[in-house]
């Protein structure tokens, strides 16, 4: 029975008698919403035992009470007696907890003043045992389960072992320092040399904590710290690494530590770029610094972006911005010095020599400059400032692009997003780097020889090109016409012009000429009348790719819509002005009409398009059910976009696919052929494929001329250029 006065509070509280195994009784007053676990917690923690943790349990009326149940749910009466005892709860990876605790204790004991080093257990042996335990746990699970290893390493962090070991390493006693170094270096080769790599791919959180535990002044020049930092870079660049493997390490902690490492690599790269003029950097060190720079900054980016979404600006974020600004400043200074070594613009008429011997010495840091620019391009902090820098140094940027070969084209591909800042020579160089080089001389494959009958120009050329293998097309082409003795580059150039002009002749119905510019062509939607039209579209694609590879002007120009489709870019209303002037004018009028007129349905337009196919009128819905949807002022933009898509893209999709299949025959499988167009605009493609539309620039012609059998100083060559200047 409840005592007097207890009835008033009985609905809100209960008095419980907790009796321990030693018969001692503790009186606790609990609310009805309190759980059994919260009541037992008032008695204190159970503690740890071998193989697990000791956890309190409560028994009432012969049954164990669920720890998550509330006093009210269990209906415990006033003065209910609960018998309390301990139960051993197994702890996951108990051996790991024990070993981690032993390592931390041994390290603290070794660091204690006055304690002989032999009194502490061998730290290296203990760490090796810990890593063996992680691998054993992995084997017990399965060969593909990496979870237990990550949990072991999390225990190593939770016990604070990295910090204790680094503290011992930084002691003044050489023997203690060596003992700690041997233990730490276990994580530089955590797996047996002959065994499968199990632990290494997951050590980044531990390695990062090791690096972060070093005192600021102790990092520079320390070989162990340098080795740990290099191993972090190695692990983060492993294909098996994912950001989820950071485990329970707070993302802010990861970002702060990664920013510090990224800043160190940035300083090394800045020094390397600045020292390029003085030739102070060692090639091996520069390569290592650059590799670490790329790894740390690419790994840092997602961590910072994640925190930027929901964290206000912090001091570490400000430090990152200052580092990015310092990187940009180093590149800007480098470009300024580079332009000081370039010939003046007045000498630009001379032929460009992109050989390494003709460039200033600083191009030895070419890869570092491009790596820094690529990283700056990825950060909004300095993106605008970087574009301003590129725009302020156009000659340096152009020279940088021209000094790169095809082996570097992928690493600088990002700059195609800023093609508006590049001149034509740079844009063309980036595009041509996507094509394989023609192999000449010893070791080159035999030339692909063709004997063409002028009367059967297209059929003969089709047979040689359409049925050739990619390897044959990547060899040197040799063309001769029947009953003619002439061979060589001039004949090859004539053959390219004749075949391309025949393919793009509107009478062949493959392509149609733009009404207002008869030299520009787009795919003819009615080409289906020719049963071989798809095979000839693939042939045309091969011919265009070959003309570009051999740097031959085909004498044809693509319509803007055809170029944009090949480049994978969207087509807008303004883009179809030359292709279909009538459709362009009609769409413009619809957009300019008063909204009330459009909404009155005076145009009687629905989402359909009428077309003529083989003499018959057909109605094509722009989307399912489009014939029942009226065009209004709100949806007219959508109507025009769908109309353009169907009229220009959908109606020639199949032909374009075959043309593209032929075009990409010249590209390596691992290089997307659409990247060829990434750095180009339609005007650039005009100059590369069709040649100049205006008068010939003799100076440019002379600058791009190669001499075979002659030299530029030969008397006949001088006569030739003198006559050319007078034409």
Please provide a written account of the structure.
With 727 residues, this protein is α/β, with parallel strands linked by helices. The protein is 48% helix and 10% strand. The chain has 30 helices and 13 strands. Strands 1, 2, 3, 4, 5 and 6 form a 6-stranded mixed β-sheet that branches. Strands 9-10-11 form a 3-stranded mixed β-sheet. Strands 7-8 form a two-stranded parallel sheet. A hairpin with a 2-residue loop joins strand 12 and strand 13. The N and C termini lie far apart (123 Å). The N terminus is likely disordered. It is an enzyme of class 2 (transferase). It catalyses: S-ubiquitinyl-[E2 ubiquitin-conjugating enzyme]-L-cysteine + [acceptor protein]-L-lysine = [E2 ubiquitin-conjugating enzyme]-L-cysteine + N(6)-ubiquitinyl-[acceptor protein]-L-lysine. InterPro entries: E3_ubiq-protein_ligase (IPR050409), HECT_dom (IPR000569), Hect_E3_ubiquitin_ligase (IPR035983), Ubiquitin-like_dom (IPR000626), Ubiquitin-like_domsf (IPR029071). This is HECT-type E3 ubiquitin transferase.
**Helical content class:** 40-55%
- First-last Cα distance: 123 Å
Radius of gyration: 38 Å
Global geometry: extended
The residue ranges in which pLDDT falls below 50 over 5 or more consecutive positions are: 1-10, 346-362
Output the number of helix runs.
30
Structural class of the helices, strands and pairings? alpha/beta
Please state roughly what percent of the residues sit in beta strands, choosing from under 5%, 5-15%, 15-25%, 25-35%, 35-45% or over 45%.
5-15%
What is the count of β-strands? 13
Largest sheet: 6 strands, mixed
What is the mean pLDDT? 82
């Amino acid at each position: 029975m409840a005592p007097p006065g207890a009835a008033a509070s009985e609905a809100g509280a209960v008095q419980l008698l907790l009796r321990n195994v030693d018969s001692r009784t503790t009186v606790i007053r609990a609310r009805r919403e309190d759980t059994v676990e919260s009541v037992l917690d008032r008695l204190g923690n159970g503690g740890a035992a071998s193989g697990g943790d000791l956890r309190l349990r409560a028994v009432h009326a012969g049954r164990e009470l669920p720890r998550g149940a509330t006093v009210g749910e269990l209906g415990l009466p006033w003065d209910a007696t609960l018998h309390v005892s301990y139960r051993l709860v197994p702890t996951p990876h108990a051996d790991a907890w024990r070993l981690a605790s032993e390592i931390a204790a041994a390290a603290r004991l070794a660091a204690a003043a006055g304690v002989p080093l032999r009194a502490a257990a061998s730290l290296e042996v203990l760490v090796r045992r810990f890593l063996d335990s992680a691998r054993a746990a992995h084997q017990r699970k399965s060969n593909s389960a990496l979870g237990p290893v990550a949990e072991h390493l999390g225990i190593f962090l939770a016990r604070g072992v990295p910090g204790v070991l680094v503290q011992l390493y930084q002691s003044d006693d050489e023997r203690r320092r060596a003992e700690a170094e041997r233990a730490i270096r276990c994580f530089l080769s955590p797996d047996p040399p002959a065994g499968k790599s199990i632990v290494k791919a997951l050590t980044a959180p531990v390695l990062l904590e090791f690096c972060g535990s070093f005192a600021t002044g102790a990092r520079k020049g320390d070989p162990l710290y340098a080795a740990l930092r290099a191993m972090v870079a190695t692990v983060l660049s492993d294909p098996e690494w994912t950001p989820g493997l950071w485990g329970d390490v707070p993302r802010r902690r990861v970002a702060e530590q990664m920013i510090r490492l990224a800043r160190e690599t940035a300083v090394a790269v800045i020094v390397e770029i600045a020292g390029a003029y003085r030739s102070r950097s060692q090639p091996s060190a520069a390569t290592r610094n650059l590799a670490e720079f790329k790894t740390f900054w690419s790994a840092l980016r997602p961590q910072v972006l994640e925190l930027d979404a929901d964290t206000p600006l912090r001091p570490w974020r400000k430090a990152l911005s200052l580092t990015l600004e310092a990187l940009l400043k180093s590149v800007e200074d480098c470009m300024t010095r580079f332009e000081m070594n370039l010939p003046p613009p007045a000498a630009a008429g001379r032929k460009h020599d992109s050989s390494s011997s003709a460039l200033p010495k600083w191009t030895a840091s070419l890869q570092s400059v491009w790596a820094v620019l690529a990283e700056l391009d990825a950060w909004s902090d300095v993106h605008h400032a970087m574009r301003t820098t590129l725009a302020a140094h156009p000659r340096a940027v152009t020279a940088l692009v021209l000094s790169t070969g095809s082996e570097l084209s992928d690493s600088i591909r990002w700059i195609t997003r800023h093609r508006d800042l590049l001149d034509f020579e740079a844009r063309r160089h980036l595009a041509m780097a996507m094509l394989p080089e023609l192999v000449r001389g010893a070791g080159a494959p035999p030339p692909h020889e063709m004997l063409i009958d002028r009367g059967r120009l297209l059929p003969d050329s089709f047979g040689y090109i359409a049925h050739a293998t990619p390897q044959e097309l990547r060899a040197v082409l040799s063309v001769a016409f029947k009953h003619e003795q002439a061979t060589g580059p001039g004949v090859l150039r004539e053959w390219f012009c004749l075949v391309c002009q025949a393919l793009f002749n509107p009478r062949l119905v493959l392509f149609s000429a733009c009404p207002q510019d008869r030299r520009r062509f787009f795919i003819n939607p009615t080409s289906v009348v020719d049963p071989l039209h798809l095979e000839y579209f693939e042939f045309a694609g091969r011919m265009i790719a070959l003309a570009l590879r051999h740097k031959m002007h085909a004498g044809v120009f693509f319509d803007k819509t055809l170029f944009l489709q090949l480049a994978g870019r969207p087509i807008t209303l303004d883009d179809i002005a030359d292709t279909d002037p009538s459709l362009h004018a009609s769409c413009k009028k619809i957009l300019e009409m008063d909204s009330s007129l459009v909404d009155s349905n005076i145009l009687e337009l629905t989402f359909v398009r009428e077309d003529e196919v083989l003499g018959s009128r057909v109605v094509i819905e722009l989307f399912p059910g489009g014939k029942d949807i009226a065009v209004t002022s709100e949806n007219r933009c959508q109507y025009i976009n769908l109309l353009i898509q169907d009229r220009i893209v959908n109606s020639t999709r199949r032909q374009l696919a075959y043309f593209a299949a032929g075009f990409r025959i010249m590209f390596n499988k691992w290089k997307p052929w659409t990247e060829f167009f990434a750095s180009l605009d339609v005007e650039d493609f005009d100059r590369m494929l069709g040649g100049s539309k205006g008068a010939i620039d003799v100076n440019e012609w002379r600058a791009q001329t190669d001499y075979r059998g002659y030299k530029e100083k030969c008397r006949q060559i001088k006569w030739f250029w003198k006559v050319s200047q007078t034409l």
